[in-house]
TrEMBL record:
Comp. bias intervals (Basic and acidic residues): 1-11
InterPro entries assigned to the protein according to its UniProt record, in alphabetical order: 6-PGluconate_DH-like_C_sf, 6PGD_dom2, G3P_DH_NAD-dep, G3P_DH_NAD-dep_C, G3P_DH_NAD-dep_euk, G3P_DH_NAD-dep_N, NAD(P)-bd_dom_sf
Name this polypeptide is given: Glycerol-3-phosphate dehydrogenase [NAD(+)]
Enzyme class: oxidoreductase
Protein source organism: Acorus calamus (Sweet flag)
Domain annotation Glycerol-3-phosphate dehydrogenase NAD-dependent C-terminal: ranges: 221-368
NAD listed as a keyword: yes
List of residues binding substrate: K147, R296, N297
Ranges where the Glycerol-3-phosphate dehydrogenase NAD-dependent N-terminal domain occurs: 32-198
Annotated active site: K232
Enzyme Commission code(s) on record: 1.1.1.8
Binding site for NAD(+): G36, S37, G38, N39, W40, G41, F124, A180, R296, K325, Q327
């Protein structure tokens, strides 16, 4: 396995070694809390804990806020995690590291941390941030691993922006081709850290997550990285529908290509700063491929099509994912709200069709019929250049 310093890093930047910088070692120890403890949240805890235990810049202990629940055994989830060092519900069979402490008290979990890792399903973030206002350290920095967005009156709001606006702190993002169960068993993967201005902060996040099997590259394009991670979940629903109708590899590849094109157009229309090169990072094409081949959105959408649209996504999610959450259906709705508000539906036939299928307005087979429609460029001046 290639060591971290041999890895390719975004933007042709010098490699980031995993030793911790002199500045960090002299001045400050960083204390990490993970806000979230689902499937990916637990794997993030494992990655981070393996680094904090050996890097002098970080306190060993990693606190993980757990949305408390009672297991069928009657035991609390946090007690089970702290006793067995495993998240027995969301990541069974994987040791998290002895330095991971599960904490059911959100405010207590974040109190001492100056590095906050947000990793919950996106629909819960606003409620969590409301509880955190006034309860975090003044020098805290955040990173979001959350793939999703909110739609406000003013328009779409990325989760990193929501965190920044509600808590008044800088927020980077980490996205990539990262099916959690594969990283949990240490299979080689890559990820992208998106940052706004402060490259030193981005490097600290890279050091916190990087291992010999998890290669992280920084890219100065928060919106591009976050929109890639968010929008690919909608395309994965389309890919799953195609699988559920046994339409074969060529059709699925066509859907992925059309989806990637819509991802790029949507991102660039929302934020003109989004870079084309971001779509070639792990957060872009690689995440699209892995999610369309092996993700939960794909899996549930396949079941939806196999049932001819007769069982709802909610019902199938509960049955197939056992408490884990689907992001693609709600993201399709959020994207659709943006498109319909602006009158852009015909510019995004795939995104629009995924939403209409997921609410039962169209049958699953519409994914191919409608997605192949030529986008109507006359709707937005200059949009043709993004196709
Ligand atoms: N699982 C994966 O392979 C990957 C997931 N992601 C992203 O990470 C984010 C988090 O996903 P996972 O960690 O996989 O979670 P998950 O889908 O496995 O688990 C759901 C989590 O939500 C929590 N929860 C349920 N109700 C809640 C409430 N009312 N308030 C707060 N939390 C509640 C549960 O306790 C659980 O921790 C999502 O945005 C997802 O797209 C990103 C990369 C990979
Ligand atoms: O984001 C993911 C992989 O990078 C996981 O996607 P799913 O939520 O569809 O499993």
């Amino acid at each position: 396995m290639a060591p971290v310093q041999d890895a390719r890093h975004g933007e042709g930047s010098p490699p980031i070694t995993n030793n911790g910088s002199g500045e960090e070692q002299l001045h400050k120890k960083y204390r990490v809390t993970i806000v979230g403890s689902g499937n990916w949240g637990s794997v993030a805890a494992k990655l981070i804990a393996s680094n904090t235990i050996k890097l002098p810049a970080f306190h060993d202990e990693v606190r993980m806020w757990v949305y408390e629940e009672t297991l069928p055994t009657g035991q609390k989830l946090t007690e089970a995690i702290n006793r067995s060092n495993e998240n027995v519900k969301y990541l069974p069979g994987i040791k998290l590291g002895k330095n991971v402490v599960a904490d059911p008290d959100l405010e207590h979990a974040v109190r001492d941390a100056n590095m906050l890792v947000f990793v919950t399903p996106h629909q819960f973030v606003e409620g969590i941030c409301k509880r955190l206002v006034g309860n975090i350290r003044g020098d805290a920095e955040a990173i979001s691993l959350i793939k999703g967005m909110e739609v406000k009156m003013e328009g779409p709001c990325m989760i990193s922006t929501l965190i920044t606006e509600m808590l008044g702190i800088n927020c980077c993002v980490l996205m990539g081709a990262n099916i959690a169960n594969e990283i949990a068993v240490e299979k080689f993967s890559e990820a992208t850290v998106g940052y706004r201005e402060n490259r030193e902060v981005a490097q600290r996040w890279v050091r916190l997550f990087s291992t010999h099997y998890f290669i992280v590259s920084p890219v100065q394009d928060v919106e591009g990285v976050e929109l890639c991670g968010t929008l690919k979940n909608v395309v994965a629903i389309a890919a799953g529908l195609v699988d559920g109708m046994d339409m074969g590899n060529n059709t699925k590849a066509a859907i992925m290509r059309i989806g990637l094109r819509e991802m790029r157009t949507f991102s660039k229309l929302m934020f003109s700063s989004v870079k084309d090169s971001t779509f070639f990072e792990s957060c872009g094409i690689a995440d699209l491929i892995t999610t369309c081949l092996g993700g939960r959105n794909r899996k549930v959408a396949e079941a939806y099509a196999r049932n001819g649209g007769k069982r709802s996504f909610d019902e199938l999610e509960a049955e197939l994912l056992q408490g884990q959450k689907l992001q693609g259906v709600s993201t399709a709705k959020e994207v659709y709200e943006v498109l319909s508000h602006r009158g852009w539906e015909e510019l995004f036939p795939l995104f629009t069709t995924v939403h209409e299928i997921s609410i039962g307005r169209l049958p699953p087979c519409a994914i191919v019929e409608y997605s192949e429609h030529k986008p109507n460029f006359s709707l937005v001046e200059g949009s043709a250049q993004y196709y």
